[in-house]
Amino acid sequence: MNSLSASRPLPASDSLAASLLGAAHAVAAVLAGNALDEAFQRTPDALTGNPAAVRDLAYQCLRAHAAIESRLAVLVPKPLREADRRALLLVALCRLTTRAEGAHTTVNQAVDAARTLGGDRFAALMNAVLRNAQRRAAELDNAVANDTAAHWQHPGWWLERLQRDHPGHWQEIAAQGNTHPPMALRVNIRRSTVEHALARLEGVGIDAVARGDSGILLSRPAPVARLPGFAAGELSVQDLGAQRAAALLDAQPGMRVLDACAAPGGKASHLLECADVDLLALDLGAQRAQRIGENFERLGLKATIVVGDAGKPDTWWDGRAFDRILADVPCSASGVVRRHPDAKWLRRPADIAGFARQQRTLLDALWRVLAPGGKLLYATCSVFRAENEDQVASFVDRHSDCLRLSPCGAPDLQLLPTAEHDGFYYALLQKRAGTD
Q1: Catalytic one among 61, 381, 402, 408?
Q2: Catalytic site residue 408?
Q3: Which residues of the chain are under the pLDDT cut of 50?
Q4: Which is nearest to 172 in space by CA: 383, 317, 353?
């Protein structure tokens, strides 16, 4: 933070005060229009003594941002001009609201953080705000309950779109968007089995259950360093919803397969674990492509990795058509917003139309490189119709050689977020045989 007081010592790096300051730094950056991952990377080293606590505080504050803003507006009617101080108030107030049993610690540590950031005057304000929040808890709860965006902790336009696209489920979707995401694993069936992995997890005290052919759902998240077999490539962390892609694409041994937007390589790895295919993993960024390679190496998998724009095949395609294409296209991330809470506050209504245009371009370009009789799986981590059903329907209308398949007994598969998996959309399209 630029306004950290040079005349006062920083709090101990592993203290709650330092974690509050680190989280506030990240929250202020997001509210200024920056992505949360980038904000974490720019957090001063002095405030990252407990990175897990910093991330947890920031994530929690951003998930509940509208509700915390509503509370702060009652307590401090005149907004602070200093973005970093306002962010620290938000983070501290969020922790006070969600950790009532630790109120005394929160207040004391938040006051210390405020003193470091803005001196005694700001420390006094922080103390007054948090003490007042405790006394006026019922009033603040009412303020949140009477504000739709605050109650559901999503922007108003986002809620309106959910209500229109999913009138019978919008409340469940919004509620799931405010929860801590589940943690699921995928067993590398080339190196282990679900039964073996479950037994090893039980041996280190990690409670888990099998899901599907190669999935495992943990009862609570655990660091990958605690997962037996992870370093040896026996396991990957992958949401259960994301694990549906490999089976839907149904790539068979010997097929030429393209993962068009492959980073970080989770779905591509799953395809390689399931069948001996000739896979090309394509991604736009060199650093992102490097992550794909690192995942392949850990899992003992081999494929061709290319840096290129999926929307411009002439720059990377060798002219040999693909039997299968996974088009996991960029989207709003509205189905995984609990993992990316900054998306709720960075996105704007016009962004959805922008993503839809980008998706249309990618689909049209990738269709060119699909072999007759081949299949393309269109995938997003969105719950918005404009990026899903509407996008696919428009594509089918434009391409007379496109046959829409129903692998799950329906024209498409919209997974809404639940306690076990995130929100994903899948549609399987086949190019009619005899076409070019």
Answers
A1: 381
A2: no
A3: 5-7
A4: 383
